[in-house]
Amino acid sequence: MFATRSEAVYDQVVPLLILHEGYVTYGGMAGRDLEALATGLREMVDDAYIRHRVRQVERLGERLIAAGIPIVRPTGGHAVCVDAAAFLPHVPRSQFPAEALTAELYLEGGVRAVGLGSLAFMKEDPATGAVTFPKMELVRLAIPRRVYTDSHLEVVAAALIRLYERRHSIPGMRIVAAPRMLKHFTAVLEPLPSRQHERPEFEQLALAEDDSAPS
After folding, report:
1. For residue 56, what pLDDT is reported?
2. The whole model's pTM is what?
């Protein structure tokens, strides 16, 4: 056990804890986790199970592609990765499109994803302060083993499609607080004011037409 009254020391320790022991809220692996790992090792040499899992991920990807949502292709065997930069082209990389989309997806459909883009992989030159952004800005929809049915994933797809239809109303984000290491695990962000006042263009047009109509 490690205990401290120093917030500064705590902030230094938490990122190291993630690397060596596990996330701050759960520590090392429990017996239940070890049993799940052993089950997974057996299942992952079962060809029938592998076919089912890969096809389940493919179906989610196909549903998103049919709706015009930009994703990384092929989908692979464990996740669908949404291209957040293409999904939110109005949000600059400095405003963390992946985190903006991830937060909005949670609010829209209760779907928990992870942003893997600028927040996780941007590099800052210590001498000049110049920032280099990574080539890709992704939201990863990881699909755990033996957890979700196809119906669950249809809910995920429906939530993303709703967001895509109003994507221009989704604002970027700014960092409120972040550790020096592994920012994307424990950083605190907040949304910036929306440029579109959270109304799609067609709604603004409809309101303008209503205002000009004779009483």
Report:
1. 93
2. 0.73
